Amino acid sequence: MSQTTIEPSATGQSEKRTRIETGADYIDSLRDRELVLYYLGERITDPVEHPVIRPSINAIAATYDLAISNPELALVTSPFTQRLINRFLHIATSQDDLAQQNKMQRKLGQLTGTCFLQRCVGMDALNALLSVTYGIDAAHSTAYHDQLNEFIRLTVMPTMCLGVTDKDFAIVGALPVETSGIAYIYGSQSCDTRSLERGDLDSGNAHYSGQEDMVIFKDVFIPRERIFMHGEVEFASLLVECFTCYHRRSYVCKSGVGDVLIGAATIIANYNGVSKVSHIREKPVEMTHLNETIYSTGIASSHQSRPTQSGCYLNDDMIANVCKHHVTRTHLWNLSPRPGPCRRTHW
Amino acid sequence: MSQTTIEPSATGQSEKRTRIETGADYIDSLRDRELVLYYLGERITDPVEHPVIRPSINAIAATYDLAISNPELALVTSPFTQRLINRFLHIATSQDDLAQQNKMQRKLGQLTGTCFLQRCVGMDALNALLSVTYGIDAAHSTAYHDQLNEFIRLTVMPTMCLGVTDKDFAIVGALPVETSGIAYIYGSQSCDTRSLERGDLDSGNAHYSGQEDMVIFKDVFIPRERIFMHGEVEFASLLVECFTCYHRRSYVCKSGVGDVLIGAATIIANYNGVSKVSHIREKPVEMTHLNETIYSTGIASSHQSRPTQSGCYLNDDMIANVCKHHVTRTHLWNLSPRPGPCRRTHW
Amino acid sequence: MSQTTIEPSATGQSEKRTRIETGADYIDSLRDRELVLYYLGERITDPVEHPVIRPSINAIAATYDLAISNPELALVTSPFTQRLINRFLHIATSQDDLAQQNKMQRKLGQLTGTCFLQRCVGMDALNALLSVTYGIDAAHSTAYHDQLNEFIRLTVMPTMCLGVTDKDFAIVGALPVETSGIAYIYGSQSCDTRSLERGDLDSGNAHYSGQEDMVIFKDVFIPRERIFMHGEVEFASLLVECFTCYHRRSYVCKSGVGDVLIGAATIIANYNGVSKVSHIREKPVEMTHLNETIYSTGIASSHQSRPTQSGCYLNDDMIANVCKHHVTRTHLWNLSPRPGPCRRTHW
Amino acid sequence: MSQTTIEPSATGQSEKRTRIETGADYIDSLRDRELVLYYLGERITDPVEHPVIRPSINAIAATYDLAISNPELALVTSPFTQRLINRFLHIATSQDDLAQQNKMQRKLGQLTGTCFLQRCVGMDALNALLSVTYGIDAAHSTAYHDQLNEFIRLTVMPTMCLGVTDKDFAIVGALPVETSGIAYIYGSQSCDTRSLERGDLDSGNAHYSGQEDMVIFKDVFIPRERIFMHGEVEFASLLVECFTCYHRRSYVCKSGVGDVLIGAATIIANYNGVSKVSHIREKPVEMTHLNETIYSTGIASSHQSRPTQSGCYLNDDMIANVCKHHVTRTHLWNLSPRPGPCRRTHW
């Protein structure tokens, strides 16, 4: 019923935790958290070392390492603190900010060949919340906008248009991921258990993967100063639309994954000695055509962005939806995070 | 290097074995065969009860049960013995014979929702061999054609165009599946290990599935009277072309699987309350359009068949290839034998 | 409001007219008919010699000449008169009859490279009327079926589902094309006036073309014995459905036109020295794929035909609609009867 | 063999001519030019009043009127003269300049519903020549770049990769359109003669259209100072590539034409009372998806532009080609400048 964005990189999550700068820092920060986490019906006590889960942790770690290897792409000076911060935590205040997000997303798609969903969702949710809390405050004299500016942790927010009777679900709040009462069920993905089998021929993209959890809340307390929506149902669908507007353009990351797949397809054709066969050669061309289209619609949507009243820039929603539509067409490539083997011979 | 068709239903495979009439008979016939069979690196001693393998056995069993439930579709009087035989073992001697194969294939696709590949391959290979051995005998004064008419078991045959230097591989022969020296490696399929996990929510088409094996021959003896090609390399590609001509039209079975998928998609839409939404309603229409096209091209290829010199009818090769091409487009539906779950939420 | 099928080849249209056997006979039969015919706002007194109209007359003439050059394809023994008649006038009484119609249609498409619409419409309307009048007679004790069996000339029939208030339009009748009160407005087609210009570079398919007329009835008398529906509105939509069922499978003629276009495209590629370029070579392959699909769905629909109560065979309606749908996709080839030139250079 | 860009709006074309500011000025400037112009084999003495030619003149006139109605879109301060000039004559010196070209092109597509090809070609050729002449001068110590900066009139340039033996054709030069020895043959377009017929129902986009001429040079003199390439064959293909890079992104104009077509299609659906039918409603959605994709790829290509050594910005060539490819897919809409009627009824 609620969409949850996990943004564990925020500072100040716990007094005990040290500053996260590298991917290795991030991975270390996940140890000993005592999360209530389940996978395939079993409690997972050490997710960091779990062979199915670790690749998705590696993908997030890559977003930190990028800030070190490509600071011009992944670091930006915050207009609020004047300090260099990771672009995933940055509020877009120009067309160029949004276009730069796209370039960073493509680069990370190239580096990981998978989805690093949690960080894009966090970035897009942060920007969406900033706009929408500004609107709520204006309408209801609340102070959500200022509260939001203070920090972000795990954020809970509605994911659909709510009616008046859904008032209880019109809640947005932030809280530490290990808060008492939260349980995580790690979602299974197609062929994910290949990592548990003997041998590594079938493990696909062994080092990186995406992850999604179902998060269950049972008597969880969020202090009032970390609440950013509380019953203002008329803003719920606006928040979803604002978030999806950002996020459907964020699918530019898939053009980075596409770069990997196109390269892999080309190498496979080479290995099989058929790279000059016309109907083979045409495939990476067609893939590239779609891949650059995804990238272009993302860039164009960012380029056509306009400032909202909050100052935060919002990209073009029509083109963002066109971008997302093109991404759905990559399923023609059988684009999945860790595709299983297909040994079937068709005559 | 060689394509192997396993046709365990032939009579006379072993003096000890009793006549197979029902699906249950067939399943029983597979017990205690002491095949050398591996799956995921482990020796499987009782494939009949193995949770991953059993569904593919069930699919073959359905081909026997159909002969009982729909005898007008699946039984036919053999022109050689004047006895009623399963249509999968029948030599096509008319346009109607070939069209009836298509109708039986669609029905079985509907009943199992999967591939019962081994039996179609056996049927098509049998017909192809009959034509080609006739040709070899005419060219080389061999007696392969008569030998072939005697019986079929596991059949080994070349799967590609061979050159003069490939003479040693230009071999076609039949032998019992449990012949000493043969080892089978059961191919893994996407998400096949879901059947090994707890719960049944993710097991997909739990009762039926396809299977494919890699078959390894090590010092295997085939007596001369069960050899149907031996070094006549110039007939190897002809055999492949003849087989694929039959087989690419046999993909009509996928229209039966399509019927299941279209029904499932429609029911899922109903359950979600969106069956009248225009862009949802359009999907089963589009699927049906492709599905009936597959069926039609198969039927038309059979209808356009012509007798070969052996008397066996061969369907239209151009249209058979068009049929196969349309089948490849069903991957747009994510048509796989036992599709894994996809819980990914896309915004 | 009404669909009109002109079937001028029927015997007995006028005592004065002689039997039509050849295409030349047919063309001669059209002279001096004193039809009230308009084109581009002007009265046309001699349509036979009009440069825009003549190619469409030539296309019909080809249907007579085919009966002489390919009698096994275009002639058939009438089950009613036991005499050889043109297949376009034949009532289908078997699956093979319907499949043979498709083969004749493809051949004529190849020979003319255009639509000879009037004759297919006549053939399909004749078969549809036979079934439906049988039904009306059974329901209303009329004698339409017997009356229909006597002869066909120009036939008027409803083209849509009619309601009770549309009773006056639920009329089917036959009458000579030159009956007093009928006026024809010759429809213009894309680029049709190229034939009137100097030079012949742009005249496209100069010898053959299709035609369509709007036919206006003003106080036209049809004797009762030539009426086959008169107010039975509940049969109007049935007639349309029955006719379209036949006719959407009759679009197989387009695969004959497709053969011409594919050949032309290939020759043009040869002339330009690009026939081996991969993205050029792929085009006729893709065209052929669609073309054989059209043919196959037509054949399969005919093959799946079933006898109606009237004895007339009716083909599979689902597959007939699939056939028509595939035909609509030929517009990707810019398939038009007489395509105009396109000199536009695109960089 | 040569591509000719007619850019009649340049200042200084003739001492006699007055400054062109409005569309009406432009139309007047075309009178009494005594061009040697042919259409359908006949000499045209007054093209301005010719019913087939005038609509294409109106389309160019619209490019002048836009500078008055939307100066922020169509006027720009020249970095060379510091005066306001029409954007079609402007050299792009930033990413934004190129993106603004796209926005102007879409607007003009919306206003005219057709191609105003000559002005885009002029704009793109001007920018391409500026880059390439800079390169030639650097390589050969010529002074083409400075000469080019002086003025543009009708420009002749190569349109393909040239070899050493094609040296005589490696020529770029500018000259007044009425120079002695030049003859123009006005190209015919599909259904263009509808404008000559009685009535206006079939005249399509009556007020605007595109045009293309074949231009024949017979003993034409171009003074040396108006020559910008003379035998430097190695730069010919570079010029073509540079021009097509600009121009394939200029096809963004088609998204403006698309806006008109989508609107027209929607209105037609309304008039026919079928605008809520699902398979009708889906068409403008699909058209919009393609239309916004065209726009987006154009904008993204402009956004990704980089400065050349000449200072002139060159857009991303990969994305420009993707843009053009998407434009070719609009032929699915039967997008033609003045589509003829299609009265054919398909059952």
Indicate the topology.
4 copies of one chain form a homotetramer.
Chain A: E1 2-5, H1 23-29, E2 36-39, E3 42-43, H2 54-69, H3 71-74, E4 75-77, E5 84-86, H4 95-112, H5 117-140, H6 144-150, E6 154-158, E7 171-175, E8 182-186, E9 213-217, E10 227-230, H7 236-250, H8 253-271, H9 278-303, E11 306-307, E12 313-314, H10 317-328
Parallel strand pairs in A: 2-8
Antiparallel strand pairs in A: 1-6, 2-3, 4-5, 6-7, 7-10, 8-9, 11-12
Please explain how this structure is put together.
4 copies of one chain form a homotetramer. Chain A is an alpha+beta fold and 347 residues long. In chain A, 46% of the residues are buried. Chain A has helices at residues 23-29, 54-69, 71-74, 95-112, 117-140, 144-150, 236-250, 253-271, 278-303, 317-328; strands spanning 2-5, 36-39, 42-43, 75-77, 84-86, 154-158, 171-175, 182-186, 213-217, 227-230, 306-307, 313-314. Chain A is built from 10 helices and 12 strands. In chain A, 43% of the residues lie in helices and 13% in strands. The interface between A and B is medium-sized, with 33 and 33 residues.
Indicate the multimeric state. Answer: homotetramer
Tell me the greatest interface. A-B, 33 and 33 residues
- Biggest sheet architecture of chain A: 4 strands, antiparallel
Across the major sheet of chain A, the strand order is 1-6-7-10
Query: Structural class of the helices, strands and pairings of chain A?
Result: alpha+beta
Strand content of chain A: 5-15%
Run of helices and strands of chain A: EHEEHHEEHHHEEEEEHHHEEH
- Tell me the number of strands of chain A: 12
Which regions of chain A have little confidence, pLDDT < 50, spanning 5+ residues? 7-16, 335-346
How much helicity do the residues of chain A have? 40-55%
Q: State Rg of chain A.
A: 21 Å
Measure the end-to-end span of chain A. 46 Å
Count of helical stretches of chain A:
10
Return the average pLDDT of chain A rounded to an integer.
86
The best one-word shape of chain A is: globular
